[in-house]
Amino acid sequence: MIAQVRSEVRKLTTTKLWLWLLLGALAFSAFVTIITIATDGIEGSTQPRLSTTAGIHNLFSGIAAGGVFALVLGAIGMTGEYRHQTVTPTFLASPRRGRVVVAKLITYFVAGLGYGICCTVLVFAIAVPWLSSKDGVHIGGQGVPGVVLAAIAVAGVYALLGVGVGALVRNQIAAVVGTLIYLFVLEPLFSNIPGVRDYFTWFPGGAMQALTQSAPNSRYDLLDPWQGGLLLAAYGLAFALAGRYLATRRDVT
Question: What is the reported pTM?
């Protein structure tokens, strides 16, 4: 298994894709953080003020925004084997296909955590100086460490989801575009449809919001953070196991 993980790490670092996606994750997290700060207290804003605990949680949950790029990285890492026809030699070198998929899951989970850590450093570099200059806004005692750890975990789990989706779909364009449409179009749509939004709590996005303690939305109730964490982990594990199962059963051509 160690040799297979090393092989996946070499595949990951051979190209600059991981770097470009990391830069995208940093840019997106920075954008979310800056927007949250810039719109603080603006009339009509539904976000809690940064002078409150909920507002601080909402600000630092922006770290999890980079998880979207970790998900894309995982999806491309899995589907790239099929797109570039390297899946056959990969499975010939390691006939136990399940171990190959597990090695990918480990590699991209760690990569996702790395994305989360990098986004954390950037968000702190942006948010802390601003917060320090404002009277009545304090980080200490606001439960920030828990929010930060949760956001980093989200990036890791999203990478697992990406690998699982890639193993299920196998087509790179379909896997990447499909996940992005779900995250940025379908989930926001579901959260605004009466009747459907009552179940948004149980969607991956609802679980992520609960885990990172994002600002509560008056249209639906979120789970407790630990419940959201377990639910999001269950999604990641379910997709990972389903992807592993199908990768070992389906023909590679």
Answer: 0.85
